[in-house]
Automatic annotation (TrEMBL):
<dbReference type="InterPro" id="IPR041236">
    <property type="entry name" value="PriA_C"/>
</dbReference>
<dbReference type="Pfam" id="PF18074">
    <property type="entry name" value="PriA_C"/>
</dbReference>
<feature type="binding site">
    <location>
        <position position="571"/>
    </location>
    <ligand>
        <name>Zn(2+) 2</name>
    </ligand>
</feature>
<keyword id="KW-0238">DNA-binding</keyword>
<comment type="similarity">
    <text>Belongs to the helicase family. PriA subfamily.</text>
</comment>
<dbReference type="GO" id="GO:0016787">
    <property type="term" value="F:hydrolase activity"/>
</dbReference>
<dbReference type="InterPro" id="IPR005259">
    <property type="entry name" value="PriA"/>
</dbReference>
<dbReference type="InterPro" id="IPR014001">
    <property type="entry name" value="Helicase_ATP-bd"/>
</dbReference>
<keyword id="KW-0378">Hydrolase</keyword>
<dbReference type="Pfam" id="PF17764">
    <property type="entry name" value="PriA_3primeBD"/>
</dbReference>
<comment type="function">
    <text>Initiates the restart of stalled replication forks, which reloads the replicative helicase on sites other than the origin of replication. Recognizes and binds to abandoned replication forks and remodels them to uncover a helicase loading site. Promotes assembly of the primosome at these replication forks.</text>
</comment>
<feature type="domain" description="Helicase ATP-binding">
    <location>
        <begin position="295"/>
        <end position="446"/>
    </location>
</feature>
<feature type="binding site">
    <location>
        <position position="589"/>
    </location>
    <ligand>
        <name>Zn(2+) 2</name>
    </ligand>
</feature>
<dbReference type="InterPro" id="IPR027417">
    <property type="entry name" value="P-loop_NTPase"/>
</dbReference>
<dbReference type="InterPro" id="IPR011545">
    <property type="entry name" value="DEAD/DEAH_box_helicase_dom"/>
</dbReference>
<keyword id="KW-0547">Nucleotide-binding</keyword>
<dbReference type="Pfam" id="PF00270">
    <property type="entry name" value="DEAD"/>
</dbReference>
Length: 858
């Protein structure tokens, strides 16, 4: 048997499967998706088995055997292996990078150098010969290594201090040799557990026979006779106030056994979740649920785009749809943006499905995440709720995949593999004949485009197979055949819920023209209307949410005398002031310096640290409303583990009047006493050089407005802006998604932007501008040549131009943009173009990165 293995060496030359022989003894363990250790050149590396064959095209004597199998069960399923291939071809990344993204960090290989002693290192008969000639210390080393079997090189060096040379000599003489070991970064957690002999009578009899001075042992036996279930050793010791020795001596007598048992680190172990029952659905919910559950029951691959206004009860629809899926014996994946994955959110799922739910997000420790993932592997759960990468949960019978807040840009991973979870979800669901539900109050233009009433076949013919923005890139050969099924996209079906639950009204939204405020002499960051509204809430003991876009207010350091702005010496970006550490910092490379007291340029003392915008707002609130209780949530106040949750709980318990924050406060929160929402600077995102600026503004305002009046108390929203006539702001204030989407679609079409055209961004970076410019220039030329050769006359190659952030970590950046209509052959073209710069990349340490369907154009 032969295995095709993708090795853990992310490089172009190794981005293909290598053949290995599967030794007889391993055959029952090796499967598609297995993690194996294989010899690779002089080293041993980790790899993934992606296929098994009975023969190899290579000369059998040249095929090396697999040296070890890393897991009892393969950590990846065959469908995930296939998906990894698709991801690597669609997003143009190494296949190993895609495979690695699918397993928890704990399983990423850690390579350790160990030494072993040669079999004859002690000499022929006992410790003689060559051995006898060694220094006493060297003999000591060999004995030590032999005793241990193998010793990590570093720890041997440490133990024998200064004697690296002596070890080297032993290696040169072949008495010690180096081996490479592949270790997991994290192991399953095990605890010592006491298993009493399962015959209670026997325990009682033994107890009566023990002498009276063995009182402690007698007590243990009596306890175990009454409590026959296995018990953690520590618990038993604590319970009876005894020592481990007592238990040990009983084990020696054969009355109990002590074994190591795997346990799960459960981050939610200490919390109990009140069981919830399905709510009777509102008519719109019922309709939507009906459509989804019928598709799930029919085991059809369908994609639903659920447009439901804020507070329309989407979560209840998700929960009941999941129940339908579980009733069929199938599994469900729920994706939620990292930032909305609050305990409140988890509670809604755990409350309904209890222990059947695993939770995956980045605030868990490595160990906790690994254990949640193992619960999925071991089929102990059937629902997983998590952030982006939970789409790779190793389930085998997926019936339903839900993506909440599907428009969120955080579903796109910004580092390689630069995949979009929405598109991966659709591909994965098609493998399982599963249903996808994309839910949002403000669906993305890409997803809306996917619902346009064009037949799937017609769209495929026209665009090479893409639905709204979903990738459809294939290559020639077998891989392309494998991908065809995954690229076959069904049109999305639009489901709508126009009304809030129980007919609660959407809150009225007032647009406030801040230019007018200024004209009438109000220089404060609060308009008079918003000021009055906050005052009123304080009187009525109701709560207020205030939103300030992160990019909204200046956080930089500026000299008011000469206009100097503190810049990172390594990146073309201004430094940000952090109040808590009184330091100024670069968000891209981490460079930091002490706050400035005089201007380094003109020596003036009129240098101002603007602080994060939210800090200024907090100060001003304190001045305007003495005694006001404000909770501020931004990057500075939420870095500590658990702080995010802490603030939200405090606010829920009404320990504060105002929740003030960045985007964090706009997403998914549901507080009954919030009756006022204020967006302090609604238009700041509008000014970013990004074609999605209007869409992001509309989404953010709709989301934050949706926080008001979700329960019995009616709500009210104030939007402060300098661009009150902008269509994104007007549409958001009228809760009019339709008019926004019509206008925005028209503009995107006119300017040939996604979802009508698609983009691939190629970014090159290097320390020296001339070489960088030359290379970027020839990259563009090369792309144009190839496009012409392939008859892709419609494809536009834009650039090169300097990237909006022109330098990061002392490396300059240039970009080329490819604008196309979804032609399938484009990926092969880009791959070939990039491949022709391999030498430059290697020789000159040029970095070339490719981003398919980029979300961030900086
Ligand atoms: P969305 O996610 O669409 O913004 P939620 O799912 O958070 O809305 O629901 C809003 C509120 O309505 C929640 O408090 C939820 O418990 C409640 N709710 C949802 N469905 C029903 C129903 N059928 N009957 C009563 N209350 C409901
Ligand atoms: Zn100055
Ligand atoms: Zn920097």
């Amino acid at each position: 048997m032969y295995a095709k293995v993708i090795v853990d060496v992310p490089a172009k030359q190794t981005n293909r499967a290598f053949d290995y022989f599967v030794p007889e003894a391993m055959r029952s363990w090796v499967a598609i998706g297995s993690r194996v250790g294989v010899p690779f050149g002089p080293r041993k590396v980790q790899g993934f088995v992606i296929d098994l064959h009975t023969r190899s095209d290579l000369d059998p004597s040249k095929v090396k055997p697999i040296s070890e199998v890393m897991d009892l069960y393969p950590p990846l399923t065959p469908d995930l292996v296939q998906l990894a291939g698709w991801i690597s071809r669609t997003y143009l990344c190494h296949e190993i990078t895609a495979l690695q993204a699918m397993i928890p960090g704990a399983l990423k290989a850690k390579y350790e150098r160990h030494v072993k002693a040669a079999d004859d290192s002690l000499g022929g008969n006992g410790e003689s010969g060559q051995f006898a000639m060694l220094l006493p210390e060297q003999r000591e080393m060999i004995r030590y290594v032999r005793d241990k079997g193998s010793v990590q090189l570093e720890s041997l060096l440490e133990k024998f201090g200064s004697d690296a040379a002596l070890i080297k000599q032993l290696m040169a003489e072949g008495l010690l040799y180096e081996v490479q070991m592949i270790k997991d970064r994290m192991a399953a957690k095990k605890v010592l557990t006491v298993f009493p002999a399962d015959n209670a009578e026997l325990l009682k009899e033994a107890e009566s026979q023990l002498p009276a001075r063995a009182a402690k042992q007698k007590e243990v036996l009596r306890y175990l006779a009454d409590h026959p279930a296995p018990i953690k050793l520590t618990e038993l010791l604590h319970e009876l106030g005894i020592s481990a020795g007592t238990v040990k001596s009983l084990a020696d007598k054969g009355l109990l056994t002590i074994k190591e048992v795997e346990v799960f680190r459960d981050p939610y172990a200490k919390r109990s979740f009140a069981k919830t029952r399905p709510l009777p659905l509102m008519p719109e919910q019922q309709q939507v649920y009906g459509r989804i559950s019928r598709a799930v029951a029919a085991r059809e691959h369908r994609v639903f785009l659920l447009h439901g206004v804020t507070g329309s009860g989407k979560t209840e629809v998700y929960l009941q749809s999941i129940q339908t899926c579980l009733d069929q014996g199938r599994e469900a994946i729920v994706l939620v943006p990292e930032i909305s994955l609050t305990p409140q959110m988890v509670e809604r799922f755990k409350g309904r499905f209890g222990d059947q739910v695993a939770v995956l997000h980045s605030r868990l420790s490595h160990g906790e995440r690994y254990d949640e993932w193992r619960k999925i592997m071991l089929r102990q759960v059937s629902v997983v709720i998590g952030a982006r990468s939970a789409i790779f949960a190793p389930f085998t019978k997926i019936g339903l995949i839900i993506i909440d807040e599907e428009h969120e840009s955080s579903y796109k991973q910004e580092e390689s593999p630069k995949y979009h979870a929405r598109d991966v979800a659709v591909a994965r669901a098609s493998q399982h004949d599963a249903v996808v539900v994309l839910g949002s109050a403000t669906p993305s233009l890409e997803s809306m485009h996917g619902t346009l009433a064009v037949s799937a076949a017609a769209r495929r013919a026209a665009t090479g197979g893409m639905p709204g923005g979903a990738p459809a890139i294939t290559e020639a050969g077998a891989a392309a055949a494998a991908d065809t099924a995954l690229n076959e996209r069904v049109p999305f079906e639009l489901l709508t819920m126009h009304n809030r639950v129980e007919g609660r009204p959407l809150p009225p939204v007032h647009i406030i023209d801040m230019r007018e405020e200024l004209r009438t002499g109000n220089r404060s960051m609060f308009s008079r209307a918003l000021y009055k509204a906050i005052e009123e809430r304080l009187h009525k003991k109701e709560q207020t949410v205030l939103l300030l876009n992160r990019r909204g207010y200046s956080t930089f350091v500026m000299c008011r005398t000469c206009g100097y702005v503190a810049q990172c010496p390594h990146c073309d970006i201004s430094l940000t002031f952090h109040q808590s550490s009184r330091a100024i910092r670069c968000h891209y490379c981490g460079y930091a310096e002490r706050e400035l007291t005089v201007c380094p340029s003109c020596g003036s003392e009129h240098i101002r640290h603007f602080g994060t915008g939210t800090q200024r707002v907090e100060e001003e609130l304190g001045k305007l409303f003495p005694g006001i209780r404000v909770i501020r949530m931004d990057v500075d106040t939420t870095t500590e583990k658990g702080s995010h949750e802490k603030w939200l709980t405090m606010f829920r318990n009404r320990q504060a009047d105002v929740l003030l924050g960045t985007q964090m406060v706009a997403k998914g929160l549901d507080f009954p006493h919030v009756t006022l929402v204020g967006a302090l600077a609604a238009d700041t995102v509008l000014n970013l050089p990004d074609f999605r600026a209007a869409e992001r503004t509309f989404q953010l305002l709709t989301q934050v407005a949706g926080r008001a009046g979700r329960h019995e108390l009616p709500g009210e929203v104030f939007v402060q802006t300098y661009a009150p006539e902008h269509y994104s702001i007007i549409s958001a204030s009228r809760h009019d998604y339709r008019s926004f989407i019509d206008k925005e679609m028209t503009l995107r079409k006119l300017h040939q932007y996604p979802p009508f055209h698609r983009l691939i961004l190629i970014t090159l970076s290097h320390e020296q501008i001339p070489l960088l410019m030359r290379t970027a220039e020839s990259m563009a030329v090369r792309l144009k040549e190839l496009a012409k050769e392939s008859g892709l006359s419609q494809v536009e190659i834009l650039g090169p131009v300097a990237s909006p952030i022109a330098r990061i970590k002392d490396r300059y950046r240039f970009q080329c943009m490819i604008k196309y209509r979804g032609e399938a052959s484009i990926s092969g073209l880009v791959k070939r173009a990039v491949a022709s710069f391999e030498d430059v990349e290697r020789q000159h340490k040029m970095t070339i990165s490719v981003d398919v369907d980029p979300q961030v154009l900086m």
